[in-house]
Structure formats: structure tokens, C-alpha cells
Write a structure and sequence with these properties.
The chain has helices at about 15-25, 30-45, 100-110, 125-130, 165-180, 190-195, 240-250, 305-310, 365-375, 380-385, 395-400; strands spanning about 5-10, 50-55, 60-75, 75-90, 115-120, 140-145, 160, 200-205, 210-220, 230-235, 255-265, 295, 300, 320-330, 340-345, 350, 360-365, 385-390. It is an alpha+beta fold. Helix 1 (about 15-25) crosses helix 2.
């Protein structure tokens, strides 16, 4: 097996990084120039993340990745997470385990920095599942007629804002982040990109932004000049009034907009719509109306089971009282299993390796991540044979203690 060397990359590595980037991710239009600017700046300033290279024994760059650090909301507790992006391998060296080595190195860096959580956006779900990641967050796309949304009769607080409102919008997002399981806090550059790439309509209450829409217009068809959709990339609301006013704003766009294409992690948007159908009928027989499509969004992995429990030590865990032994299998042949005993009492969880367990649960790290992050309940995992339990009588109790009020959501991209 090839023993590769890893090191952080700097400006002196630009030429090799740029060459591999353009082969691994072929650029079109002006993307090559934008990519060059981004990589040069990132290598020089590390303003986004840090680039790490994977080198073969002959000194050639076999591949690279960019590693980020985020504030993360894990079951309501604020902690840190490692983010992974821009994974690229030299095309002439593919199928030699380069991507696998990069992921292993990423997880090692997360452990060194004591992150309980690792997050990425997958290019191949199956590949990352084998590395222990789970599809924790989902994204839903609604294609609504504007008039299908209710007009609550008031939108006087809705205004268009520019980058001079950056601090105000950042605080709005922080409020949303702190109360949303799975969310990653946007960094300053993420907020800058939000303003640079979208039109932003915000709801203000006494000068404070309590919700916003980030959107663009797009043609319904290339050959039609005056037939437009509104593509909503983010819809954030911290209050009921923010939702009401922004909803009213969207509802009144029907004279100009054909459909609202809303990307959102919240699948409950259909509840507000008089008619949430998206105009598609092909997926089911008998004219069943399709209301949204769902995609896997970010994937997450608990990096260290003990550290994950420590990160959420002040957060509630259901109402059941018992002692659980968790045996979590590693994702790779060389990765050790994690064995931890946890006592649940009074709605809290505490490690207690000396305690006698009432029940044992066996799962792999991907299954445990889904359970711990709240993207799947234990009874769902058990039914799908993604977990085993020593006593079926405890399925309900284990389901209860790990249940989250909300499945993970995220709208921070990297």
C-alpha cells in the first residue's frame, strides 16, 4: 500500500493545485477565472479554510482537500464541527485510494482539534457512507404558484437590503442557527456571498431583521422573454410575523412570477399553501399531485462518541431511565469500535462505564450518527436493520431518549 505524505498547502503550491482542480472539476464559462482567484486567495490568506495536500512518495501531488471550521448546533448544543470540501484527485492516479486517504486524514484532523462532528456535501453518497457518514440533512424543493401562499394582508415591514445591513442580517441568522438542530453558523464570507449572489428581502421590526428571503429571478423557458420564476435559495424566519409578512410579499408576486421555486430544509411549508402542487404528475399513478421533491443535503459523522455526549451534556434526553451500553462499529477495517456505557436519568445522559447495563445496542458509526443527530429514530434504524438491541422490550425507551424535536437542517454551504 502506498504510504502518502500529508501537509498543509500554501501559495507556492498554487500551480499544482490549480491544474488538478481544473481536471477534477472541469470549468465552464468564467468559472476558471473565478476559481483561480478563489484558490490564490484561499492559499494565501486561509480566509475560507485550509488546503491540505496528499503527496505520493515521489513528491508529486496526488490530491488535495479544503478543510473548514464551523460553529454547529448539535441537538440544541452549540459546539464545533469540521467541514470538508473541494476534494480532488489527480485523474491519472484515480482508483488508487487517494480520496479515501484524504477522508481519513480529514477525520484525523477533526480528532486532533477535538471536533465531535464532521460535515460535508457529498459527491457520492455511497462512498461517504462507507466512511461512516450519514445523510443527516435533507433539502426540499417546492414549486408553488405565488397565489397559493396566503396573503396575510400586511407586508409593510418588508424591505430590500444591501451589504450595509450585513451585521443586522448576521444577527438574524445567528438567532436562527442557535435554535435549529443541525445548522452551521454562517461565516463572514458566507454572509458576503449571500449579498453578492442574491436579492435579499428582509422583514424588519423596529430596525431589527427577524427574517429574510434570498432569491433570484430565472426564466421559465429560454425562449420566453417575459415569463419568470422566482428562485428562493433561503427563507429564514425567527418570528410568526416575519413569516406572515414575507409570505404575503411572495403571494403578491403573481402578476409577474409564474412559480416560486423554494429550496428549504422545512418540509412543513406545504401546510401554509392553499394548493402546494408543483405541476408534476409523472411520479405516481391516478393523478396524485406531487408537492415537493427531496434531496440528500449535507452528510455528517460523529467523530468521537464520547466527545459527542460531552458536547450535549446539558441537553435533555427524553424521559426514560435506564443504563445503555453502546457498541459503535468503526467504518473501516482499521478503525476501532467505540464502547461506551451511558445512564439516562431525569432526562439527562451521563457516561458511566462502571455501571451494569440494562440493555446493549450495536450499530455502526453511520447509524449512530443518524440516531444522535436526530435524523432517524432508533425504532426506524432497528426496523431497517441498521441497529441491533439485546432486548426488544427497550426499543421504545431507546427511541424516547434519543428523539429530537426536529430533524437536522442546514443552509450553510461550502
Amino acid at each position: 500500500m502506498t504510504q502518502r505524505i500529508f501537509r498543509e498547502l500554501g501559495p507556492e503550491d498554487f500551480d499544482r493545485v490549480f491544474a488538478i482542480a481544473n481536471l477534477a472539476y472541469p470549468p465552464y464559462g468564467d468559472r476558471k477565472e473565478k476559481r483561480e482567484t478563489y484558490i490564490r486567495n484561499a492559499l494565501a490568506t486561509r480566509s475560507s479554510g485550509t488546503f491540505h495536500g496528499c503527496f505520493d512518495p515521489d513528491g508529486s501531488l496526488a490530491g488535495f482537500m479544503e478543510v473548514y471550521e464551523f460553529e454547529a448546533n448539535l441537538r440544541g448544543a452549540l459546539t464545533r464541527a469540521g467541514g470538508l470540501g473541494f476534494v480532488a484527485a489527480d485523474p491519472v492516479k484515480k482508483r488508487r485510494g487517494i480520496a479515501s486517504d484524504l477522508i481519513n486524514r480529514f477525520l484525523e484532523l477533526c480528532r486532533q482539534k477535538q471536533y465531535p462532528l464532521a460535515v460535508l456535501y457529498p459527491f457520492n453518497i455511497g462512498f461517504y457512507r462507507k466512511k461512516g457518514f450519514s445523510c443527516t440533512a435533507r433539502m426540499h424543493q417546492f414549486r408553488l404558484k405565488p397565489a397559493a401562499l396566503p396573503d396575510f394582508g400586511r407586508r409593510d415591514g418588508v424591505v430590500f437590503i444591501g451589504a450595509d445591513e450585513k451585521e443586522n442580517l448576521t444577527q438574524c441568522f445567528r438567532t436562527y442557527f442557535e435554535r435549529t438542530n443541525g445548522m452551521l453558523m454562517k461565516r463572514a464570507l458566507d454572509i458576503d456571498n449571500l449579498f453578492g449572489r442574491h436579492i435579499i428581502a428582509a422583514y424588519k421590526n423596529q430596525g431589527v431583521i427577524e427574517g429574510y428571503l434570498a432569491f433570484n429571478f430565472q426564466k421559465t423557458r429560454p425562449d420566453l422573454e417575459h415569463s419568470d420564476d422566482m428562485a428562493v435559495a433561503e427563507w429564514v424566519c425567527n418570528t410568526r410575523e416575519a413569516f406572515a409578512q414575507l409570505c404575503s410579499f411572495l403571494s403578491t408576486q403573481s402578476d409577474q412570477i409564474h412559480r416560486l421555486i423554494v429550496n428549504t430544509p422545512d418540509d412543513h411549508l406545504y401546510l401554509a399553501a392553499l394548493d402546494p402542487e408543483n405541476g408534476e404528475h409523472g411520479a405516481f399513478k391516478n393523478m396524485i399531485h406531487e408537492i415537493y421533491v427531496t434531496a440528500a443535503d449535507s452528510m455528517s459523522r460523529i467523530v468521537d462518541v464520547r466527545r459527542a455526549f460531552e458536547a450535549v451534556k446539558d441537553r435533555p434526553f427524553g424521559n426514560a431511565g435506564f443504563t445503555l451500553r453502546l457498541i459503535v462499529a468503526g467504518a473501516a477495517p482499521g478503525e476501532a469500535d467505540e464502547d461506551i456505557t451511558v445512564t439516562f436519568a431525569g432526562g439527562m445522559a451521563a457516561e458511566d462505564d462502571g455501571a451494569r447495563a440494562d440493555v446493549e445496542v450495536h450499530t455502526d458509526i453511520s447509524g449512530f450518527t443518524a440516531l444522535f443527530c436526530g435524523s432517524a429514530s432508533f425504532d426506524e434504524l432497528y426496523r431497517m436493520r441498521c441497529a441491533e438491541i439485546s432486548d426488544e422490550a427497550f426499543v421504545g425507551a431507546v427511541t424516547d431518549v434519543f428523539r429530537c424535536a426536529d430533524r437536522p437542517k442546514t443552509i450553510t454551504y461550502f
